[in-house]
Amino acid sequence: MTAVRIERLALIGLGLIGGSLSLALKSAGVVGEVVGYSRQLATRLRAQELGLIDRPADSVAEAVQGADLVFIATPVQAMGGVFAQMIETLAPDALITDGGSVKGAVVAAAQAAMPEGQWRQFVPGHPIAGTEHSGPDAAFATLYHGQRVILTPLPENDPTQVARVEAIWRVAGAVVEHMTVPHHDHVLAATSHLPHLAAFGLVNALARLEERYEVFRYAAGGFRDFTRIASSDPAMWRDICLANRAELVPMLDHYLAELQGLRRLMESADSDGLAQAFAEAKAVRDALYRPQSTH
Ligand code: NAP
Asked: What's the pTM?
């Protein structure tokens, strides 16, 4: 296995995803110095106070100077600007990776912003771990323990650089898998992006009811479970949905067709059809997760 040693980590984006990777690498003792940048001074100072970074930088260019690893953990729509700001100061042998939830748009942004010699240094990744909390205070060292990280290496990447990114995630406790960029965006539209849309949509639908106060007063565990992720950061999820809309819109249509099917079964009072649809869903979910009691 590749031994991991990072002399200087440049962390761009100092929230849950970036901060947690930094804490994990620091607690494993594999990183010399962490230099961090985010737009707001208050975020940088808080990240320093919490020990996510050792030193704040005033710009992306300053943060990446002298770094052997650059980890980008900003919202995905900001990444193009981040790539553009590092071209002057990035070391020729520096490794760049990211934690963005969408890969096609981020790879296109890297290729548009940087010369080929530099974007080849970018090994895209996506940790399948998170919470509905954001910002530096949300970061914790064990976020990635036992969680999957999907790398979507580019044909132009140096295989030793890909192996280094894998080794870094393993140090953070993650299980690493590979996918192509388009396959990642297709699968994640289904498993992550669509559920977030559904949760945001359900909360809004109920909030627009005249009797919403009463509805929410009697909302129980099922509503809470289903909608937990609607507490996620709105700007981050706007970025993700827009960046992956080519995959997400057809996935949403697929879900709407399923809901329409349920609607038809109820309209026609098709008891067997409804029971069968629910039984199919229960069998799939029970096979994925141990059944738990819900109320
Ligand atoms: P977060 O907690 O909100 O942190 C985002 C950080 O980026 C903040 O420090 C923010 O600080 C900074 N930032 C925003 N715009 C910036 C810009 N233009 N330039 C530099 N810094 C900027 O978000 P997160 O949950 O860590 O998510 C980060 C990335 O990970 C996103 O791409 C997301 O898709 C991905 N991801 C998230 C999850 C999840 O569950 N949260 C899971 C997997 C992957 P300032 O406001 O000071 O700029």
From this structure: 0.93
Same domain, 114 and 187: no
Domain boundary among 179, 212, 231: 179
- By the 8 A CB rule, do 26 and 142 touch? no
Show Cβ contacts of residue 124 under 8 Å, excluding neighbours closer than 6 positions: 97, 98, 100, 103, 106, 107, 110, 151, 152, 153, 154, 181
Establish whether residue 173 lines the binding site of ligand 1, counting it when its CB lies within 6 angstroms of any ligand atom.
Answer: no
DSSP class of residue 39 equals S
What's the CA gap between 33 and 103, in Å, rounded?
28
Atom of ligand 1 nearest to the CA of 135: 2
CATH number, domain containing residue 206: 1.10.3660.10
CATH label of the domain that carries residue 47: 3.40.50.720
Counting atoms of ligand 1 from 1, which one is nearest the CA of 39? Answer: 48
As for how many domains the chain has, the answer is 2
Written as one string, the DSSP assignment of 140-191 is -TTTTTT-EEEE---TTS-HHHHHHHHHHHHHTT-EEEE--HHHHHHHHIII
pLDDT tens-place string over residues 94-140: 999 999 999 999 999 999 999 999 999 999 999 999 888 999 999 99
Q: What number does the ligand 1 atom closest to the CA of 129 have? A: 42
Mutate to test the pocket of ligand 1, among 16, 49, 74 (most ligand atoms within 8 A of CB): 74
204 plus 278 within the same structural domain: yes
Ligand 1 in reach of 78 Cβ (< 6 A): yes
Q: Is the CB of 241 under 6 A from ligand 1?
A: no
